[in-house]
Amino acid sequence: MSTALWILLVLAPLGAIDVVYYHLYRFALYARPASVAEQITHLVRQACFLAVVALLAMGTPGPIARVALVVLLAVDLVDSAVDVLLEPRSRAALGGLPPFEYFLHFVGTFGSGLASAAYLLEYGKPFAAAPVWMVAPTLILGAALLGLESALFRARGSAAARPGAAGWRSVSGRVRARGGGTRAQPTVKLFEDAIGFVIGRRPRARARHRLPATDEAQHATFAGAHATIGRERFRAAVEARERQHQDIGRRGVGRDRRLRSRAALRRPGARDGDAAVRWGRSR
User: Fold this and answer.
1) CA distances to 211, 256, 270, 283 from 267, in Å
2) Fewer CB atoms inside 10 A, N or C side of the chain?
3) Which residues contact residue 260 at a Cβ distance below 8 angstroms, ignoring those fewer than 6 apart?
4) Is 131 helix (H, G, I), strand (E, B) or coil?
5) Under a CB-based contact definition with an 8 Å cutoff, are residues 127 and 60 in contact?
6) Which DSSP helix (H) or strand (E) runs through 64?
7) Same domain, yes or no, for 162 and 255?
């Protein structure tokens, strides 16, 4: 059995967690216009993964299969690099990637490179076919996730492209028309509810982690305006506090002068009040 296949089978559960929880459930990347390019890279990578696992599971590949494996592994590595370049801009409105998703991506990319190196080391060498019970769950689950993610992505894309549609909605699963009505997407909503049921929470329970795609530009504008207003308010508060300290200082100087004047009037031998006042101020 191929060493590269062993590595890919170990990586499969981690990739499934990444797809189901982060891509489909928590962030619904298939429904965000800003994540279209990233979503395409994810679909390409899943297709390459399934093809490589299927070819390696059949045992020693023939000449055409060997070339196909090299091409698929190269496409996977290039696709991973493109995904890394797209993620900062795609996830900017979501606050970036969570730490555990960063960990999953790192392990997945490192494992793919390790599998590619292992296959190149055993290139041209014979190896046995993998048992069906070992490979079948990975292929079935991978094909199901690929089909589900592709269907969701296509359903949201076709809904947004319809005449009168205002855009994709990543939280409610509906597309709002210009006339004010809504057209529900029952298939997409059913998939979202199913994912939430499997995880054990409602699909909208973590909706605060993402924004409707049509409101992202407005959110960015409002955030910038609020930051500017906050800086102006802070500057105004500092200036007001400085003026208050200056007023307190001036009042304090006047109070000290009045106290010295009163003390001079009470001095023994003071004959002229005006002279005493002037003497007290001179102190």
Assistant:
1) 77, 17, 6, 13
2) C
3) 280, 281, 283
4) coil
5) yes
6) helix 63-90
7) no
252 and 176 part of one domain: no
Amino acid type, 108:
G
Task: Let me know whether 179 and 235 are in one domain.
Answer: no
Last residue of a domain, one of 154, 184, 209: 209
Percent of the chain whose predicted confidence (pLDDT) is above 90: 19
Q: Do 165 and 259 belong together in one domain?
A: no
**Identity of the residue numbered 251:** R
**Residue 184 pairs with which residues in a beta bridge?**
174
d(CA 173, CA 192): 8
Place of tokens 């200082």: 249
State the residue range of the domain holding 230: 215-282
Question: pTM of the predicted model, to two decimals?
Answer: 0.57
At residue 168 the predicted structure's pLDDT band, cuts being 50, 70 and 90, is very low
- Asked whether 14 and 108 are in contact (CB, 8 A), the reply is yes
More confident residue, 24 or 258: 24
Q: Are residues 170 and 41 in the same domain?
A: yes
49, 55, 60, 66: CA torsion to nearest 10: -80
User: In the predicted model, is pLDDT for residue 26 greater than 90?
Assistant: no
Token readout for 215 is 């409101």
Q: Which helix (H) or strand (E) holds 176?
A: strand 174-176
User: Do 249 and 165 belong to one domain?
Assistant: no
pLDDT digits (tens, 9 = 90+) for 50-94: 999 999 998 888 888 888 999 999 999 999 999 989 888 888 888
Number of domains in the chain: 2
- Return d(Cα 153, Cα 36) in angstroms, integer: 9
